[in-house]
Description:
The chain is an alpha/beta fold. 45% of the residues lie in helices and 20% in strands. The protein has helices at residues 18-30, 45-58, 75-83, 95-98, 100-109, 120-137, 150-167, 187-202, 204-211, 249-262, 282-303, 306-316, 326-331, 364-378, 393-396, 399-407, and strands at 8-13, 38-42, 67-69, 85-90, 112-115, 140-142, 171-182, 234-235, 242-245, 272-280, 333-344, 347-357, 389-391, 411-416. The longest helix has 22 residues, at 282-303. The chain is globular and about 55 Å long. Residues 419-424 have low confidence and may be disordered. NADP nicotinamide-adenine-dinucleotide phosphate is lined by residues 14, 16-20, 42-44, 47, 71-73, 91-95, 98, 116, 118, 146-148, 186-189, 192, 320-321, 323, 362, 366.
Amino acid sequence: xxxxxxxxxxxxxxxxxxxxxxxxxxxxxxxxxxxxxxxxxxxxxxxxxxxxxxxxxxxxxxxxxxxxxxxxxxxxxxxxxxxxxxxxxxxxxxxxxxxxxxxxxxxxxxxxxxxxxxxxxxxxxxxxxxxxxxxxxxxxxxxxxxxxxxxxxxxxxxxxxxxxxxxxxxxxxxxxxxxxxxxxxxxxxxxxxxxxxxxxxxxxxxxxxxxxxxxxxxxxxxxxxxxxxxxxxxxxxxxxxxxxxxxxxxxxxxxxxxxxxxxxxxxxxxxxxxxxxxxxxxxxxxxxxxxxxxxxxxxxxxxxxxxxxxxxxxxxxxxxxxxxxxxxxxxxxxxxxxxxxxxxxxxxxxxxxxxxxxxxxxxxxxxxxxxxxxxxxxxxxxxxxxxxxxxxxxxxxxxxxxxxxxxxxxxxxxxxxxxxxxxx
Length: 424
Ligand SMILES: NC(=O)c1ccc[n+]([C@@H]2O[C@H](COP(=O)([O-])OP(=O)(O)OC[C@H]3O[C@@H](n4cnc5c(N)ncnc54)[C@H](OP(=O)(O)O)[C@@H]3O)[C@@H](O)[C@H]2O)c1
């Protein structure tokens, strides 16, 4: 039974794609028709019916799973989905190409929304076009509820909540370390990266969004002291490990800064955050950091040149719809560590959070992060002063998401940073 007047609690739109199928499979396994009125959405009736039949076969609790058809090129069909639904959870990407009409439909129909986007240029477009209307309507539009950007945003929320409770002061700086990542990548994700580079080559606003560390902050607040992402290999003074630039810093750091701004700057106007990949200690760590930084630099350079970008997409990348198998996504792993430093009444302190799981970060774990974000919205398990707007995981859902993810097997711990482990 739906928990509101809507026909469906939750529609997974994009359920025929790699991430959507995994999210739908997770929700069908974790919930029953009595606990969640779930429907699957997509553009092809046949493909949807086949996914729905497969999931019903695999889960005794579901005799059948309803399906709804809607195409990103047909706004009427999206309004019809949004109208009947409490929460739309969408994996239809690249979002720069297909995402806007569904956000618009959800804002018009006051339907809460969450997605998996890492396309920072498109998040900026969504902020500029829909934030005010979503605030007025009390509609929660929560972007980036997957590996981009839940570990960074929720890790920051964990260290800041701990600092506030224990030291009555915020962490002035937060450093997010991607310590371990094991998992595959899909054609859909690579197509979304292509879309970001494409936008940067043609659209001045996209270029500004990628250049300005504060580009996702509210209008009038788009500058500050934070210099933005690390560009070179560097030995980290806090942990004595080598670090390299993180490919996800571009979106994750901006999302964390947006969380601070939307929450009213509880972490201070001078708050700084950075995300890096750790590569270990000593010579091996230094060489690893050089390799990661060099590889990322080469990839970025190649993707910035139109013909090379097209060639990579055509000959090297998997097609959209292709990606790791369900079994492969269950085998990965990730650990993201967040260190926050601040100054309390008794002097400086350092707080450490660990967030991770034994599933591939971009798919097995992302399906659970997105699915549980959507369930938080359905059940209004939200700890936020904001009733609506274009939001982030930390500002739009907050700590209830941590609780749900812990319950389904994620590690999410926070404590004072231990001395003797290289921490200051
Ligand atoms: N944040 C993260 O950590 C994370 C992780 C994974 C993925 N992602 C993002 O999630 C998105 C999806 O990735 P994916 O690998 O699942 O991609 P995918 O396999 O290509 O799936 C895309 C989905 O969009 C649907 N679609 C395409 N055009 C449409 C249209 N005009 N109208 C309605 N539906 C349409 C496809 O339907 P058909 O099946 O009918 O073609 C499919 O269901 C990408 O943007 C990716 O970057 C993010």
